[in-house]
User: Fold this.
Amino acid sequence: MIYLQLFLAFLRVGFFSFGGGMAALPLIEKEVVDTFQWLSNSEFLELVTLSELTPGPIGINCATFTGFKVGGVWGSTFATLAFCLPSILLVTLVFHFLSYFKKNAIVQHFLRGLRPAVIALMIMAAYSLAQKGIKDWLAIIWGIAVFILLTRKRTDPIFLLLLSGVMGLIWYR
Amino acid sequence: MTSTKQVKWATLSSLFFSFFKIGAFTWGGGYAMLPLIKREIVEKKKMLTEEEFIEGLSVAQSLPGVMAVNTACFVGRKVEGILGSIAAVLGAVLPSFLVIMFVASFFLQYRHLEVVQNFFRGATPAIVALIVGGVVDIGKSALDDWGDLIIAFILFLVTLLLKLHPLWIVLIGGMLGVARKK
Assistant:
């Protein structure tokens, strides 16, 4: 039963996650934290951090981790498989109707319309994570500092993540 | 495409290992993988031409799902049919799958330790900053269109206030696109 739930939850995520891993986070959160309560708020935060710190696509990392926590190796397998299935089906389908897909006005308008939707999803991801995990002034100031380093100095994000973690070790000790 | 069975296996394993290598050594998700996939598949292995790859990329980016998986699926399909898709997708996913199971089995044992908690507490503002940085990056290309930004913000607020499933953002956004005929 838990395998079926994992499969359906990540199948839903797979079908609606447009625009990359970060935009998929609110969908994953909805299923994993709200609907099925497999992870607590703080566990979800840890999941996102771990997914960023490890190599590979963020969505796959989230699916494998959640599946593993809830259902061991088989849980991981079902969650990850379900996340990949819509991709494989749709890419294969579109591959055969490529010219139609590219010329169809409704499809193209729909895809163009997703641009603000992707931005909205990312704002939602940031808002939700901030609400769960930013609880003191240092965290706010540090978040702004990291943002400036990222956008102005193009500092490596993984380095900034690790540095922030180490700061946490010192500050919250 | 290929005549003998041996050659075919060589292509499949080549697809698998190309994507395995990229999956194992790229941090930062799908967008970070794209230039590496291009270098490996187009420049080094010459499995696809640049035009074929860019065509595949535009499809991969417009479909739902994990971008690296979509790209792998398209490249595999083009090079070696359905079996090629399977080989490439397995290669792209397997490193994450193995690494995360390994990490999770330790992490779930030690996550309650104070050191671990403090590390993650410290990392949270950086994660938020990372996502906001992503919003700014994508928003820049949409900045010439204020309509997009206003719609994005309204979609965010509506979903938040009505506690809708985020998949509605996707559906409403897409339908608005059809209605606006942009």
Remarks:
- Chain A has two domains: 2-133, 135-173.
- Helices of chain A lie at 2-16, 21-35, 41-53, 58-96, 98-103, 105-133, 137-153, 157-171.
- The two ends of chain A are 42 Å apart (CA to CA).
